[in-house]
Design goal:
With about 350 residues, the protein is of the alpha/beta class. The protein is built from eleven helices and 19 strands. The protein has helices at about 10-15, 35-45, 60-70, 85-90, 105-115, 140-150, 175-185, 200-210, 220-230, 245-250, 310-325; strands at about 15-20, 25-30, 30, 50-55, 80, 100-105, 120, 130-135, 155-160, 165-170, 170-175, 190-195, 215-220, 235-240, 260, 275, 280-285, 285-290, 295-300. Strands 5-4-1-13-14-15 form a six-stranded parallel sheet, with helices on both faces. Strand 2 (about 25-30) and strand 3 (about 30) form a beta hairpin. This is Haloacid dehalogenase.
Length: about 350
């Protein structure tokens, strides 16, 4: 299944666990995102469990849980899965307990590596067996240089994630992938990554929660939704962060969501599936789209001002055309104005 699917009941009633991204989904920097608390609170009320799964490796789970709680989304540390914890899990697949690991990152990564039984060092001269690298605002040239020296000497390079950018309250900032890129540029060594889109974190979170029907909620196609596809879990793309509805229409098959919604309130809604017509249109509750000679054509439903169903139809039409070997011309795809995004 590479297209959108339908759900005739609210998602929170169909799936028992939501793996929820943080930046761009639950909050933006230190600011809440509209309807996040209401959507997730409603999901809990319907019996859905939550685990907040973030590629941010700089913070402790306790700190993340405290911020969520302050924003009206009550959460405990056991409901947070960070890329730092996933990175420590990856290290454990190859290294013996007590092995030296050079940590480049913040408190969250330091704690996770120590809790996994490794010895944390700060210099390449300590002869670490691995370098664990995660984002932290304080990471600078000195730490990146030590990482490069260690990797050049044979240390295994494990990145918490490869996100190139990070949504903040003031705008889009460089992410861990940009910092990892500096080490890769200096060494020529491609690191292993523990974070999304690797399915490692998702699978660890599902195992921890004991869930049987998990789903993923995220704003980024390349990490959140790509990770969902890699793990084999349905993914909901919310339009409150990095990637827009237009991006979804043009998404690579490995990054396509199963559902699209304006924000986290969409977890409390049923989701119609687009249907194909004999005339080549894809329709969702009257909103239709098709691809003709490589160009996307749209036909809004009468009286529908949300454009969300039009977006669903556009995704279905564009994806079907791409899968048939005739991808849509990106210039013909508009930015659909879904309210609230």
């Amino acid at each position: 299944m590479t297209g959108l699917i339908g759900c005739d009941v609210p998602l929170a009633e169909r799936y028992d666990l939501a793996l929820v991204d943080l930046d761009g989904v639950a909050y933006r920097g230190h600011d809440p995102i509209a309807n996040a608390a209401e959507g997730l609170g409603g999901a809990r009320a319907r019996g859905m469990s939550l685990v907040f799964v973030t590629n941010n490796a700089s913070r402790e789970p306790e700190s993340v849980a405290a911020q969520l709680t302050e924003l009206g989304i009550p959460a405990g540390p056991d409901e947070v899965m960070t890329a730092a914890q996933a990175a420590a899990g990856v290290l454990s697949t190859r290294l013996r307990p007590g092995a030296k690991v050079l940590v480049v990152g913040g408190a969250g990564l330091l704690t996770a590596v120590r809790n996994a039984g490794f010895t944390v060092v700060t210099s390449a001269d300590d002869e670490p067996e691995a370098v664990a690298q995660g984002f932290a605002p304080e990471v600078g040239w000195t730490q990146l240089a030590e990482a490069a020296y260690a990797v050049q000497r044979g240390a295994w390079h494990v990145a918490s994630n490869l996100d190139l950018s990070l949504p903040m309250a003031r705008g889009i900032a460089p992410g861990n992938g940009s910092l990892v890129g500096a080490v890769r540029a200096a060494t020529g060594v491609v690191p292993d990554s523990a974070g999304k889109p690797s399915p490692t974190m998702y699978r660890l979170a599902v195992e921890r929660a004991g869930a049987s029907a998990p789903m993923v909620i995220g704003d980024r196609l390349d990490t959140d939704l790509g990770g969902a596809r890699a793990a084999g879990y349905p993914g909901l793309h919310v339009l409150t962060g990095i990637n827009s509805g237009r991006d979804a229409v043009l998404a690579h098959p490995s990054e396509r969501p199963y559902f699209v919604g304006a924000d986290l309130l969409s977890v409390l809604e049923a989701h119609p599936a687009p249907e194909a017509t004999a005339e080549g249109w894809w329709t969702t509750r009257g909103a239709a789209a098709r691809v003709v000679d490589g160009r996307l054509e749209l036909r809004p439903a009468a009286g529908d001002t949300t454009e969300l169903n039009l977006l669903r139809s556009a995704c279905a039409a564009a994806w079907a055309a791409a899968d048939d070997g005739a991808p849509v011309d990106a210039a013909s795809v508009p930015e659909l104005a879904v309210p609230g995004t």
